Amino acid sequence: MPTTAPAFSDATASDSALRRFLHGLPGVDAVGLEARAASLGTRSIKTTAKAYAIDLAVSMIDLTTLEGADTPGKIRALAAKAVNPDPTDRTTPRTAAVCVYPDMVATAAAALAGSGVKVASVATAFPAGRAALDVKLADVRDAVAAGADEIDMVIDRGAFLSGHYLKVYEEILAVKAECVRADGTDARLKVIFETGELSTYDNIRRASWLGMLAGADFIKTSTGKVGTNATPANTLLMLEAVRDFREQTGVQIGVKPAGGIRTSKDAIKFLVLVNETAGEDWLDNHWFRFGASSLLNDLLMQRQKLATGRYSGPDYVTVD
User: Fold this and answer.
1) Could you tell me which residues come within 8 angstroms of residue 233 by beta carbon, excluding any fewer than 6 positions away?
2) Active-site hit among 220, 266, 269, 298
């Protein structure tokens, strides 16, 4: 099967070729990476820029609920919040998407119809990814058929950590092939690495390139279901990967940090990383997203404070 990066077709010709390519990527200077991420996190943001950054961050959120207790009523309430995050201020941007399990896609799609807010769905036996390939593909087909605009898949971390890179690559290709909707358009594919389980920065760099070679539309840090999720350092590393990939192929890939980003201060630090690493082309919700549930409320409270000069507190936003 072809990839979105024909220039690298030789690298994906066989398991051994893919291994040579991935292990031939430059090693990551962990100390330097973490120092740069920390340094960028100290940048001060002026009031006008902060207001812009908060609105931008709101517009980049994949408002997420992935709980066993999710109900259609909860999904409809979340969709309403995504479309109109702050009922007291209609200038508040809409979120980018609502992210749900496949069985809730139809409910979300009906609630968001005509709003411009996308429906995203996790799939491929999220979050562990421990299922047969035919089960994973059926999961994707169900979500796409129900109206998902975007699919967030998890890679087989066991295969990756065992060095079976071609298996992971071919699974991403197979999932990508199932992302075609009835009207012939593609649901965008976000590939989740679960960086907290990959152990090393070198593995995160390899996973980033593997996902991009296989046709990912986004590369995503985490499921939010493990102890270590998105960090400035692992997101910086992935931003470097998409920047370098575009330089070499002309193909732009999005990045989605997910899990643990809860405050406006956190979100703004990540936006600085985007601007200083990948560049302004990624400062758009088509190319950068936050996977979050609680982040939106803090952004709304900070937004209200900038507008009124008073900190309104959590009683002034809805509890999801």
Assistant:
1) 33, 34, 37, 201
2) 220
Report the candidate in 244, 293, 284 with the shortest Cα–Cα distance to residue 93.
284
Which residue shows structure tokens 């008073």? 310
Nearest to 289, CA basis, from 142, 118, 169, 157: 118
User: In the β-sheet with 290-292, what is the strand arrangement from edge to edge?
Assistant: 254-256, 218-220, 188-192, 150-154, 118-123, 97-100, 61-64, 290-292
Whether residue 269 contacts residue 236, with contact meaning beta carbons closer than 8 Å, is answered with no
CA distance 73 to 75: 5
Q: Which of 81, 256, 266, 298 is catalytic?
A: 256
pTM above 0.85, yes or no: yes
152 is catalytic: yes
pLDDT per residue as tens digits for the range 117-161: 999 999 999 999 999 999 999 999 999 999 999 999 999 999 999
> Are 264 and 45 in contact, with CB atoms under 8 Å apart?
no
CA distances from 228 to 60, 67, 222, 234 (A): 22, 19, 8, 10
Q: Using CA atoms, how far apart are residues 26 and 23, in angstroms rounded to an integer?
A: 8
